[in-house]
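Render this sequence as a predicted structure.
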Amino acid sequence: MRLPDPRGTISAALVDHLRDDAPLDPATVERLRGLAAAVEDPLGDGDLQLALAVAYEPHYSGFEGVGDHWEWDPGLLGVRAGLERRFEEGLRAEVGDAAQVRAGVPVDVALRDVLEHPRLTAGPSLSRWVMRHADEEQFREMLRQRSVYQLREADPHTWAIPRITGPAKAALIEIQADEYGGGRYERMHSVLFARTMRAFGLDTTYGAYWPLATPATLATNNLITYFGLHRRWRGALLGHLAGVEMDSSAPCRRFANALRRLGYGEDATFFYDEHVEADAVHEQLAAVDMCGGFVGEDPQRYADVLFGAASLVAVEGRFAQALVGPWEAAAAAA
C-alpha cells in the first residue's frame, strides 16, 4: 500500500509528513484543522476524504515506508479529529431527521423505515441500473471503486466485538464469522471479491485503485472506520452493519444477474451469489438479535443505531450518483 497522490492542501500536508517522517507541529495541526472546518461539502470533497483515508490507514495495513508509530502520533490524531468533526457535521446535515427515534417502535422496524426513507433513497438505484444497462467496462469501474472497501470487507465492523456484550455480541460474532468464511480462507468475502475482480482482469492488490476512487467511494469507506475506531459510536457501527445486511440481498442478486447477462460465469458471480444467501440469513440476526439486543441493554444508544443506518444510506446514495450520473449522461448523448 503506497501513499496516494494528494488531492489538495490537507492531503498533501499529511502525505508529505508521513513520507518524510516529519512530526506535525501544533501550528500545522491547527492550520489543517482550520482548512477542514472551512470545507463546504465534506462528504463530496476529495481532499478532505482522501486526507481522512490517509489518517485512518495506519490503523489497518499502513503504508509502505511509513513507520508504525504514526498510528498513534499526536499530531496526526489532532488533524484527524478536525477532519472527523467536519465529516460528522456533513453526515448530520445529509441525514437530517431521517434517524429520529419514535416511541414504542422496535429497533428492527425503525431500521427498515430508515433504509426506506424517501429523502435518503431519492437518488438512482445502482443495482437496478447495472442489472438493466451496464456494459462490461461500467461493471469493471464499479468493481474498481468497490475494491477500496471490499478487499478488506468486515474488518471495520469487527472493532465492535470487544465493545459490546450479551446477545448482541454473540450475534455480531456469528455474522462476522460468515464474513470471514467460517475459518476457510478461500471463502472469506474479501477473497471472493478478489475472485470477481480477477475475472475482469483487475489488480487485486489492496489499495491499487485508491488513485481512481471518487470522494463518494472514500466516504463510504471512511464512514465505517470512523464508527469503528470510536467506542462512543459502537451503536452506529452496529446500525451500519445491520443496514448492510438488511439491504444487500436483493442488490447482490441484481449484480449477479447483470454478470450473467454479460456472459460471466461462477468465477465472477460467486461473490454476489454468496451474499444473496448469507445476507438473507443475516438480516434478522443483525436487526433483531444484534441491534435489538444492544438497544435492550443500552436504550440510550437507540438513536445512534439509527444514525449509523441512515449514514450508510446517505453515503451509498452519493456513491450510486457518482457512478450512475455519468453513465446516464453518456447514454443520453449516444
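Summary. The chain has two domains: 9-95, 107-333. The radius of gyration is 19 Å.
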